[in-house]
Amino acid sequence: MKTRCLVCGLLVVSLCGLALPVAAQSDAVYLGALSAPFATLSAEGEFTYPGELDWYAFDVMNDGTTIHVLSTGTGGEPGIRTLLFDAEGAYVDTAAGQILKAALAAGRYRLRIDSVESDASSYSLVVWNGVESESNDGLLESNNLGSVAAPVVLIASLLPRGDADVFSFEIPETGLAAGENALLIETEGASNGDTALVLYRFSASEGRYLPIASDDDSGDGYWSRLLLHPETGDRYAVRVEETAFPLDGIDEYLLALTPLALGADAEPNDTATQGVVLVPTSPDASSWTTDGLLYPDDVIDFYTLTIATRSLVQIWTGPQSGGGDSDTVLSLYSPEGDRLAENDDAGDSSWSRITIPLEPGSYAIAVEASSPGVSLLPYRLQATTQGVKVVSEAEPNDDPETAELIERPAGEALLVQGAIEPEGDIDAFRFVVSEETTVVFQIGPRAGATEVYDTTLTVYDEDLEEVAYNDDSDEGWSRIEETLAPGTYHVVVESYYSDEAFEYALLMTEL
Questions:
Q1: What are the pLDDT digits (tens) for 209-233?
Q2: Stated pTM of the model
Q3: What is the SS3 assignment for 44-112?
């Protein structure tokens, strides 16, 4: 089945003297016609064996139409190639990983999609004729994209320096396509352009467009991204500006509006008593996965997690497919309603993670946006359990000679309840690895505590040579993941600041 796609960019390959095989005349998948000023055609496909080819056809309705074609490997991988042929089967142009641009007469055209390296892979294809029309520097001069119910892609520039581009559109009364409940608005390009987006919605009571959302930097670069839950019949406008200083202008960028089908939680679940019951997704009932959405007027979602036996429980949030990265806050509550743990940013991510030993019972999980706003926030909530042994630190254990021996049962996690006390205390533990193992050590708050302290974590071998060290991994706590050969090791916990005393939990697991 071939459906829809999006964008990316890289390298050009050109071939000459090719003619369209006769078989492609009837085998091509018809994409549609480029007739309206901002028409976009799109598809997704897959090469199931090396050397496979796919054919597509589309119509150009008006002479002199400039079309753009982009095919990319799913996930942005390079190597997908596009060959363009005219109605008589004559070769027109080729591009691989970069936009193919051609001025065409009215008629039917065909595209051959293949892999440069003849790989088996999946890909996305988009064909469009949308080009910015100046002057569109304000709301009154905006380029009208018309009714948006399917993907729309256009090419534009921010020149001269200080230029702004404004595009308006509306959502049809019938809404987006079946099953799609969100609209992704993003800028993208081959260079490191730095843009900002401002989204407006038309207010009938005010008789004008009012700003409702904005984004500067999104993802790994400086392009911009907004995720909207559009209302049927609403009118919107989006303004694109350059934000890098000094303003140099951007020669070329893409603006894409893409409807998405995102997983949503069952509403209402705004309180612990309304929590959606999590159903195990593994045969041994040790893992759970569900998708949810936080709306501007729905700022918290609750779930109920039931644990059958005493376990180490890990709960975390992450992205949905196509939903991008977001910033969540995760909280866990006891059956009595007491907050047991809270986490905002986990490690280098703005997603959240809680790791905690729990007794059998039903617990409430809350997912919130770290900074509530008007943008839609999709997330994936996951949880896993495993057996755990819990021990308490035994002093003195301040040096290698007095390091406390900790033993972890095979297949289980080990949780050490420790304390840096008095100020300047050092806690040393000794453990044995019987075979090569990837071991994870992480420090965090005890159950029921939400304070963050700045720790350091060091692993030494039997000769007290440093093997691994970590200062900040999760806000201020520490984490080490290291593959260790058989032998005896020491792990040392310290406070980064010598004038602090606090309790902590040290977790040891293996991958």
A1: 999 989 887 755 689 999 999 999 9
A2: 0.80
A3: EEECCCCCCCEEEEEEECCCCEEEEEEEEECCCCCCEEEEEECCCCEEEEEEECCCEEEEECCEEEEEE
